[in-house]
Here is the input.
Amino acid sequence: MSITSKEASPRVALVTGTTSGIGAAVVEEFCRQGHQVLAVDFNGEGKAVAEAAGAVFFQANLTDADACRAAVDEALRRFGRLDILVNNAGIQHVSSIEEFPEAKWRQIIDLMLTAPFLLTQAAWPSMREGGWGRIINIASVHAQVASPGKAAYVSAKHGMIGLTKTAALEGGSQGITANAICPAYVKTPLVDNQIADQAQLHDMDEQEVIEQIMLKNAAVKRLIEPAEVASLVAYLASDLAGAVTGASWNIDLGWTAQ
Ligand code: NAD
Here is the structure.
């Protein structure tokens, strides 16, 4: 196959966190490109979203290690192999370190750092045997900078960059690439919830949160669309991106340029 081909080769992909937001947009884009997609989410409402796009849905709570392995097993059972893994599922909890509930800390680390590790580990043999693999981790601008009130999220996302780099080094000789995407605020339910939380934390109204906190460091003063992130995922998942690995890709409206 020519690496200069502009057409995507049909692949088998597993995407996590697909009921809404970035994950739903990635599933839609992959299906549009003709990939076979297993969409994994703990929310049963994700079934209709996945099937509308042309994907197969698998319900799993990814804070559970066995559920992570079961998701990969399901992709292998249904499609015979796994070529692309997109670790996207995530949650947020905003509170000061002093008041941060330990259970919330553990849930965030389990979902956003341990699950991507376990899914990568389970997917690896199929990618190695096929001599081709793409691991795409949806990190965050908070993988590079911190904000107050987000200790667990910032820690998990920084950890995800370490996992990405290690996977890139180990996968280089096996045709497996690993990259992270670092968006600033994307228009999704996760951000809608944060606007309310941040308003409470900083004693502001919701418009002030968007303008004075979320877009404070942005050169481009708007929220990002999920489809804009999905288009970068599609590039990183393509044959054309075979030389790109171990990198963090900012879609951050210029936040980290300063
Ligand atoms: P979202 O809330 O729309 O989607 C998150 C998805 O994860 C949902 O479908 C939810 O059901 C699923 N999920 C949550 N807990 C789960 C669990 N235990 N098991 C399985 N699935 C679970 O949010 P989003 O904004 O699309 O976020 C997707 C990813 O992008 C997250 O990792 C988030 O940290 C990252 N991100 C988002 C933004 C943003 O501004 N929205 C910015 C940077 C990074």
About this structure: Residues 186-223 form one domain. The beta strands are 12-16, 36-41, 56-59, 84-87, 133-138, 176-183, 248-251. Residues 28 and 150 are 30 Å apart (CA to CA). Residues 17-23, 41-43, 61-63, 88-91, 111, 138, 140, 183, 185-186, 188-191 surround nicotinamide-adenine-dinucleotide (CB under 6 Å).
